């Protein structure tokens, strides 16, 4: 096991101890949403099981009601039929990008993250078979692309900025990679993973 793999596994909450329903950024989001219940959701942070260790990301279609055109991890809201958040992440990944569940090995969780749109998102980190074939659903996903995990671990690739939202200033991060802008909740989740892996 190399240093990156060791750091990755050490950064995660174990599979038998999923995070609670309160996100690590709850106080920030409460400024806008108060303490109203958040809707449960899950995303898959899929990392190719090969030398490059590419992270799977999607570009949402321009016709969606929420997050149209944005870069996102595959995922979505928890449905009553889902056994747990891992089942949600796997189901949504299959629906959105055609990723078969038997090509995915869940490793652990990151802390939940709350969004301005009222969701509490549980990130499920997993290894994805290097040979897994992907077929995006054009109704939800315009394209799938991959970013080397090493790119996110290099602090030179993280840009910090401040934005105004509903009269409040918010500290944000983003990553720019080969023409893709990774920002918002996706960038914040990546930043948390990077931080937990011991990078600034």
TrEMBL record:
Keywords carried by this UniProt record: Hydrolase, Magnesium, Manganese, Metal-binding
Listed InterPro entries: CoAse (IPR045121), NUDIX_hydrolase-like_dom_sf (IPR015797), NUDIX_hydrolase_dom (IPR000086)
Keyword Magnesium applies: yes
Molecular function as annotated in GO: coenzyme A diphosphatase activity; metal ion binding
Keyword Magnesium: yes
Stored Pfam families: NUDIX
Top-level taxon: Bacteria
Names of the cofactor(s): Mg(2+); Mn(2+)
Residues in Nudix hydrolase domain copies: 37-169
Protein's recorded name: 8-oxo-dGTP pyrophosphatase MutT (NUDIX family)
Annotated organism of origin: Luteibacter rhizovicinus
């Amino acid at each position: 096991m190399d240093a990156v793999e060791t750091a990755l596994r050490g950064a995660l909450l174990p599979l038998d101890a999923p995070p609670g329903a309160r996100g690590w950024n709850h106080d920030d989001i409460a400024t806008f949403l108060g303490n109203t219940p958040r809707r449960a959701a899950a995303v898959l942070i899929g990392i190719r099981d090969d030398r490059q260790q590419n992270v799977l990301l999607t570009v949402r279609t321009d016709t969606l009601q929420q997050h149209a055109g944005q870069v996102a991890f595959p995922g979505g809201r928890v449905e009553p039929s889902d056994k747990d958040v891992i089942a949600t992440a796997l189901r949504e990944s299959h629906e959105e990008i055609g990723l078969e569940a038997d090509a995915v090995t869940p490793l652990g969780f990151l802390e939940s993250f709350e969004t301005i749109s009222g969701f509490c998102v549980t990130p499920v980190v997993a290894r994805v078979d290097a040979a897994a074939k992907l077929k995006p659903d054009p109704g939800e996903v315009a394209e799938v692309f991959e970013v080397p995990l090493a790119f996110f671990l290099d602090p030179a690739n993280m840009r910090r900025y401040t934005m105004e939202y509903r009269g409040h200033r918010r500290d944000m991060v983003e990553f720019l990679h080969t023409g893709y802008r990774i920002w918002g909740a996706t960038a914040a989740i990546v930043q948390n993973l990077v931080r937990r892996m011991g990078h600034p």
